[in-house]
Structure formats: C-alpha cells, structure tokens
C-alpha cells in the first residue's frame, strides 16, 4: 500500500483504525516521510500541527519521535510539541 500522499485526514483515519483495532495506550509514535526515490529511505520527520494535536489527544506523555538538529532521532513528550495547548 502506497502511503506517500497521506493527508491530515488520512492520518486521523489511520489513528482511529488503530484504536478500533484495540490500540488505546500509545507509548511512541512517529511521522515518517515516504522515500522519494528507489535509493532513498523512509525518514522520521516532525508531525504537522494537526497530527500533533491528534497525538496529544491520546495522551500528553506519548513519546513522539522527531529528528534533532544534528540529524539524529530523539523522542519528546506530545505535550512538548504543543506548548501553548490549554485544552
């Protein structure tokens, strides 16, 4: 299945499908950019704002994998990606 052109709505559907299948406690989640060419590899990217909100809705302590400034992959709490969140 080609997931390269996913939209925010598609991501929400994937998360809802996971919940419908019984996944309710997420420990970690990652946004991954689909490879653009045959030689490219999938890579972790920061989730967009809508996806950040959806992830945080499952729990402020869900670890979100993000790419650091030096290119490594690290994890932060979902709440840290929405510092101004008041709901």
Neighbour order of strands in the largest sheet = 2-1-3-4
Count of strand segments: 4
What's the structural domain tally?
1
Structural class: alpha+beta
Percent helix, as a range, is: 25-40%
Can you offer a commentary on this structure?
InterPro entries: Cytidine_deaminase-like (IPR016193). This is Cytidine deaminase. It comes from Halobacterium litoreum. With 87 residues, the chain is α+β, with helices and mostly antiparallel strands. It has a single domain (8-81), classed as Cytidine Deaminase, domain 2 (3-Layer(aba) Sandwich). Helix content is 25%, strand content 22%. The chain has helices at 8-20, 49-57, and strands at residues 28-33, 43-45, 63-67, 73-77. A four-stranded mixed sheet has the order 2-1-3-4, with no helix packed on it. Strand 3 and strand 4 form a beta hairpin.
Draw up the topology in text.
Elements (H helix, E strand, L loop, with lengths): L7 H13 L7 E6 L9 E3 L3 H9 L5 E5 L5 E5 L10
Protein name: Cytidine deaminase
InterPro entries: Cytidine_deaminase-like
Organism: Halobacterium litoreum
């Amino acid at each position: 299945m080609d997931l390269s052109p996913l939209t925010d709505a598609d991501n929400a559907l994937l998360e809802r499908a996971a919940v419908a299948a019984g996944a309710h406690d997420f420990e970690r989640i990652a946004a991954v950019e689909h490879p653009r060419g045959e030689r490219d590899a999938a890579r972790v990217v920061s989730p967009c704002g809508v996806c950040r909100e959806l992830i945080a809705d499952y729990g402020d302590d869900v670890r979100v994998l993000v790419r650091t400034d030096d290119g490594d992959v690290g994890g932060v709490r979902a709440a840290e990606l929405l510092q101004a969140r008041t709901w």
